[in-house]
Structure formats: C-alpha cells, structure tokens
Amino acid sequence: MVHTLTGRKIAIVGAGGQLGKPTLKALLSKGVHTITAIQRNESTSQFPSEVSVKRGSFEDEFFLVNAFKGQDVLVVIVTIPNMDLGDRFIRAAAKAGVPYVLPTEFGVDAPKVENEHSMMGPKVARRRLIEDLGVISWIAVITNIWLDLNIQIGLWGIDVKGRKAEIFKNADAKISTTTISRSGEGVAVLLSLPEAELAQFKNKSYYYSSFELSQRDIFEAIKRATGTRDADWDISEKYAIEIIASTESKIREGDGYAERYRLFVMYFQGIQGANYEDKAIDLEKYGLPKENLDVVIKQAIAEM
C-alpha cells in the first residue's frame, strides 16, 4: 500500500545527538520536509546542506520564539542534564504558534511509571503544561527501553565484555523494546502522515517497537552473536524482588544507574507499560521492514 507523504516544516532541538542523528536522517530520507536544527552558539555539530541551522542561546526566549516561528512541528530531543530546558522550549513554541510539539519522551510511557523513576514526573508535567497553554498539542513518542544502547550499557543485566549475566528470577515477562535507528524512523513516519491522521495523535501517545522480548530472549540472542554457550558465562540468578530492594539505598544516594536498573527489573516483572504491543503502530505498513534481532545484537556488540 502506497502512503501519501505530507511535507512539514520541522524544527529539531538536539538534531546532532544520539537519537537526533537517526531522526534527522530518517526525516530527510522522506524528501518532503524542511528541517531546521536549533543549536546553541557553542555547538560544533555539522549537518547536511539541506538542513537550515539557527544558533543562539537556549536561555534567550526571543531567539527561541523567532527560531520556532513558521514551524509546523517542534521536536525536542535533549539529554537528561538538559531536560529542565523543556518548559522553556514549550513556552517559546506556544508563543511562536507551533501546532505540534514532540517533547523529550522517546522512551517509556511516563504516566504508567510516574512513581517508579524520578525522570517521569517532569515528563508528565510537560504534557500538562502544553495542555494548560491551550494553543499547541503534544505527541508523546513511546519507544520503551532502547535494545541496542542498553546492551552496551549493561542495563539488561548482561555484561557482554565481562561475560557475566544476572538473570532476574520471577521476572520473565516479554516487554516492548525498540532500537535507536528504528526510533528515528518511527518519528519520520509519524511526521509524514496527512494532517487528518496526524491530528488523531493530538495530546496522545504514539507507540511503536522493534521487538517483544524477555530477558532470556535477549541473553540467548547475545550468546548467538558472540558464539558462546552458558558454560562461557558467569551466570547468577537472583529474585527480582531482592534486586529491587538492593537498589533502594543507592537510589536514595542519587545513583541514577541503580534507579534505571530497578525500572528494568520491574519491567520484566510485567508492570504497566512494559508491553504495549496491542497499541503499537505497524511500521511495516509504512514501508519499514521488520528488523532482524540477531543483526541488531551483533551490531550493538560490534560498536562496544
């Protein structure tokens, strides 16, 4: 089925970042969008010639409002240390009359786990701020936990380089997970929809995923990618409830890794929001082929 692409003027904050780059690439590949990268003065990121670049201070509302004027969509993809700037971008977008804002989500469905991670409350608050302003709409892009990045970080409980695996007992649910590249491609599909279809996501979440996997599924794929067997690994099993309890003191001390690790374990326990396959958009209908798990895992490990 051929889908008609609708071109838009899209401003991106964070176009040179880890998710920004594949998102920009996917949007440009559609050949119908006019893209503007909003950058700090001191940024050294380089972009293709077809991308307009506006540089200024993110503390300067006048700069932001003028940079956002005439845009159809604002996509905000900032790192955790810069997430507090989100309100500033939103207020400037409202003053500039930008119809749609994709705030920094691109992960778990924040309202579902608002009490389980300190980063979720601010995300929910930004959705409410947009609604309270009453002149723009948010769309929350939900990709859940990134598969490839977190193999490299070790948050799946598997240390590839050290050949160690901590298996979460009584936590064998399958969760929705997405690769970084597919995350960017999903945004491009969304923002290329005809207006009548895009409008259906006003102040709603847009779900998609690459795979539906358990922790054991991920471990088996890693073993295939590394040509190893259980005997080659230091494997321990620990009850999920014990792992969660062991993170509490670290989280109180401000250990961000421990807070994320706890959320991963809880996801495999099957908490709300861990699996949304029943709501996920079928991206194959929009020309994106299904990803190959073994290829994704091998590439993630090769990049470590």
Automatic annotation (TrEMBL):
Residues 8-140 form the NmrA-like domain. One of its GO terms (molecular function) is oxidoreductase activity. Pfam families: NmrA (PF05368). Keywords: NADP, Oxidoreductase. InterPro entries: NAD(P)-bd_dom_sf, NmrA-like, NmrA/Isoflavone_reductase-like. This is Phenylcoumaran benzylic ether reductase IRL1.
